[in-house]
Amino acid sequence: MEGQNGKHKKFSVLVLVLLLPLISFVSVVVVKPSTGKNLQVRKGSTFKITIFADLHFGEDTWTSWGPLQDIHSTKVMSFILDQEKPDFVIYLGDVLTADNIPIANASLYWDQALSPTKDRCIPWAAVFGNHDDAHFIWPTEWFSDSGIPPLKCSSLISSSSGEDNCIFMGTTRLQLMNHDIGSSALSFSQKGPNNLWPSVSNYVLKISSSDDSESPVAYLYFLDSGGGTYPEVISTVQAKWFNSTAQEINPDSRVPEIIFWHIPSRAYKTVAPSGVINKPCVGSINKESVAPQEAEHGIMKALEARPSVQAVFVGHNHGLDWCCPYKKFWLCFTRHSGYGGYGNWTRGARVLEINEQPFSLKSWITMEDGSLHSHVFLSS
Amino acid sequence: MEGQNGKHKKFSVLVLVLLLPLISFVSVVVVKPSTGKNLQVRKGSTFKITIFADLHFGEDTWTSWGPLQDIHSTKVMSFILDQEKPDFVIYLGDVLTADNIPIANASLYWDQALSPTKDRCIPWAAVFGNHDDAHFIWPTEWFSDSGIPPLKCSSLISSSSGEDNCIFMGTTRLQLMNHDIGSSALSFSQKGPNNLWPSVSNYVLKISSSDDSESPVAYLYFLDSGGGTYPEVISTVQAKWFNSTAQEINPDSRVPEIIFWHIPSRAYKTVAPSGVINKPCVGSINKESVAPQEAEHGIMKALEARPSVQAVFVGHNHGLDWCCPYKKFWLCFTRHSGYGGYGNWTRGARVLEINEQPFSLKSWITMEDGSLHSHVFLSS
């Protein structure tokens, strides 16, 4: 018990340290798409990607429980990164629980979530989930006798930071993405074209051949599936953007395409195993119903039309980690990687291994206890 | 039909004009409580207050319907102000439908709502409703084929105003109140003490005797009943603030106290007429159930303890305009004053008439068609 109390104190100090620099707002650094940066297969090696989904940093910030979960999540990521030694990391949304972050600067928690990857000098890309720019939800108990806990804004009102820091508006997708991009040369995240707004994390990255940095081995597409401050959808304009971009850079569908977004599309419901996961599906947990996007506005038709599409990867459902075939490609869940967010299923991450010549896409789940499972070949 | 089209065009131009100055954010002018300003009964006259509730300016801003309703609401207020010629106007919350205002600067619509009063040089005070700083709710249809309508933010991204104006965060209570206070010397609105935050519109105004500007005839208390970006409650701290303020400035309960907030407290449910409004209640419409605050954290007990409290006035329920006695004072609804917001009941406003010597508080409803009804004496 004494040990635990000691830990709590440490966490309280940590929380305090994290909350102190409230004055500094998210720096809005506008960075052009990653010209000059390149993702390239290393000679004689595969290209390995680790996907972390649903980390939910910043949950319950005003208790000791929340910050403790973030420490656990950091440990999970650190362990998995040391185990798998990936070439690239994808943060597949719900990096934050922004609805629990009672300060404008959610980027502090974003930085925490990215630190295991950054510390190991591994490049990354991020796509948003529905909790990343969610509105702050006020706990009703703060309005009864207990009042607002010590991290409250009223203490800020009298500070030199000015009363207008006292707005619980959170940090927008645009601010968060600018922060991510500007935070390190390791960030391969991008802001999408302006006409896709309010949807922000829409972009494509090329993985180049070990022989020739101009020659693409695969294209990774990131799409923002919305939620939080706006509806949980991939819009018609996004579907059109995917289509025109893919037509432009890969007109003959020669290069394999791999797709990443946060909230499963409605197509996931049509392939979901009922109960036990049997072949052709591959996975270890199927503990809840697919919670899909609110509507389907054409992205699935656009994917179906391209023989180069290999698989779609989503998070969102913490209790699902399967892959199932859908028409000519695969629909996969990741795995709950964080201690934040609902569910106590053992944490893990999905790994993708791309082989260059001949092209293959292999995947498995890597667990916080070091075990591996659910190996599957996803290439068509 | 031609006439209507012409009107629509005029409204479109108006909308455009209103949306153009998006670059200018709400000016944050910090103004001290209204020292030097005074509300005083005119010699040989009563002191007349008109209450406008639930105007809902800025509703459906992207259609022609919404701006048209605002024009109707402006007409209602202008007519009533010319008819009643009040000494003071109270804006009793839901001045805006902020959840329909897709720009940061909700203060543009706030100014529109205040203009009939301002134009007539009548002083006013405002208290917030649950829609005044609500989060913007994205219409789902904007994500399908139709896309975001022409007032969309994407056009702003490329403007000189910078991409960060492209946040649909709305305007906070604090920003709105600073704007109101700074907009005119006629504003008697105040920001409440910082420790009541996020609740902002909490303050007390004194009406002075015609003989002696130091001698109070009545105290008007304004309380923020929350909602929108945080729960719909009057908190424990607010109740304590009311209690200590009233004890301090009116220790012997000699001066009558009149209370204003937006969302009915749960006590309203206990006195609500079922069906027809019979005595001792007085009113003309009882068309819906009382939609009360989420919890009761002590404000009613604080009011009950003071024999000086005469009545509480709320809005929120557009289909209710009754007053009913509750313990030693009255609980009153106003009347839907605006064309924005639900319900098509004929618009009106509640009038209060304070007589100085002997003190009396009379009230009635004044309608957009010029009729008056539901006269009632509210003084104890």
From TrEMBL, chains A, B:
<dbReference type="InterPro" id="IPR011230">
    <property type="entry name" value="PAP14/16/28/29"/>
</dbReference>
<dbReference type="GO" id="GO:0005737">
    <property type="term" value="C:cytoplasm"/>
</dbReference>
<dbReference type="InterPro" id="IPR029052">
    <property type="entry name" value="Metallo-depent_PP-like"/>
</dbReference>
<keyword id="KW-0472">Membrane</keyword>
<keyword id="KW-1133">Transmembrane helix</keyword>
<feature type="domain" description="Calcineurin-like phosphoesterase">
    <location>
        <begin position="47"/>
        <end position="318"/>
    </location>
</feature>
<feature type="transmembrane region" description="Helical">
    <location>
        <begin position="12"/>
        <end position="31"/>
    </location>
</feature>
<dbReference type="Pfam" id="PF00149">
    <property type="entry name" value="Metallophos"/>
</dbReference>
<dbReference type="GO" id="GO:0016788">
    <property type="term" value="F:hydrolase activity, acting on ester bonds"/>
</dbReference>
<protein>
    <submittedName>
        <fullName>Probable inactive purple acid phosphatase 16</fullName>
    </submittedName>
</protein>
<dbReference type="InterPro" id="IPR004843">
    <property type="entry name" value="Calcineurin-like_PHP"/>
</dbReference>
<keyword id="KW-0812">Transmembrane</keyword>
